[in-house]
Design a protein that fits this description.
Blueprint: E1 3-6, E2 13-17, H1 21-28, E3 34-38, H2 39-44, H3 46-55, E4 58-61, H4 70-82, E5 91-95, H5 97-109, E6 116-120, H6 123-129, E7 134-139, E8 142-149, E9 154-157, H7 167-184, H8 186-199, H9 203-223, H10 238-247, H11 254-271, H12 277-291, H13 301-308, E10 318-324, E11 330-336, H14 339-351
Helix pairs in contact: 1-3, 6-7, 6-9, 7-8, 7-9, 7-11, 8-9, 10-11, 10-13, 11-12, 11-14
The chain binds nicotinamide-adenine-dinucleotide and zinc ion (ZN).
Length: about 350
Amino acid sequence: MYNFKIKSIVHDYGVQFIDDTQGVLLKELKEGDVIIIDNKIKELYKDLLQPVLDLYWHIGIDASEKVKSYQGVMPIIESLIDNGFRKNHRLIAIGGGITQDATAFIASIMYRGVDWYFFPTSLLAQGDSCIGSKTSINFNQYKNQLGGFYPPNQIFINLEFLDTLSLWDLKSGMGEMCHYFIVSGEEDFTRFKNEYAQALTDKKVLAGIINRSLEIKKGYIERDEFDKNERLVFNYGHSFGHAIESLTNYRIPHGIAVSYGMDMANFVSVKLGYIDNSVRQNIRELLKQVWEGTSITDISLDKFTVALSKDKKNVGKTLGLILNKGYGKIFKDLRPMDEQFVGWLNEYFTNELN
Ligand SMILES: NC(=O)c1ccc[n+]([C@@H]2O[C@H](COP(=O)([O-])OP(=O)(O)OC[C@H]3O[C@@H](n4cnc5c(N)ncnc54)[C@H](O)[C@@H]3O)[C@@H](O)[C@H]2O)c1
Ligand SMILES: [Zn+2]
């Protein structure tokens, strides 16, 4: 099983693949620790978790974006303070990216920082968000506006949790991991493409993909933890993806929206002569498998351009896009939102979504 360390400016932390979640929890937890758990996981894994929940106090949360807000974290903080949670106690998050973000945000601000452990249960959290130390909550309707960098002290990954994940959340995790493999290079992308179908049914193959995804991300976050330079390329597919997520009211899960987003970035890259159409088509063959069964044809071009113009990476009125000059050559490009660019988007929405 895989086991490695991540260097962080905040504090180094470890990632360990495990197969006995109950045993690890019983061994690692100490008096005073509090578990913050996705209610769905609590219900689905009752038998496995009950011996632990009997011994340690826990707070169940409904994993919706609403939890990731001031209003959402307030009752959790209130309950921690009311029940004697102290600086030397730890928070134990069990759930997907939402449980992670809410717990990490609370851990980072409570008593100027308390230790926390993370047991990711979604593929997106296992193969991507669990490392990298970002903590985010939403503000009003705007996503991930508030937060900082505060990694857990230890991450325990058990792929058995994925048995109960919906096909859409599984595909979302695959789509999200895919962008690391394209950023890494042709060899990694080809491996991902070849193993995609098998990974959905074979845990050994999937574990290899998750481990490689984290390994690629690790290289970047250790060099640019605070997302100022090299790490920015991981926004590949995300400017377009975030616009798709918000304009479909999050009906399209993050990693699937990012898959459409990567194809849009590649489409623009072909238009600009950065890559050959054959590269785009080779990647699209894989991306189509991720998004197949979903539709985004109801998005209006006008709303899409407005959403794109709000992206965090923009500089003034210029779009900060992450584009493609080939496998392993993803880069940040500044593009005006001019008639030509809007024309390309129009062409994409008219011809490329079937
Ligand atoms: N901090 C970061 O670096 C980072 C990176 C990427 C995404 N995110 C955030 O993560 C969130 C998306 O992550 P996510 O997709 O894991 O969200 P999530 O926590 O909402 O999980 C997705 C859905 O799957 C359910 N679920 C989780 N594990 C399950 C399991 N084992 N079996 C059955 N159902 C399960 C959840 O209840 C939820 O309905 C977003 O809020 C995004 O902003 C954070
Ligand atoms: Zn993402």
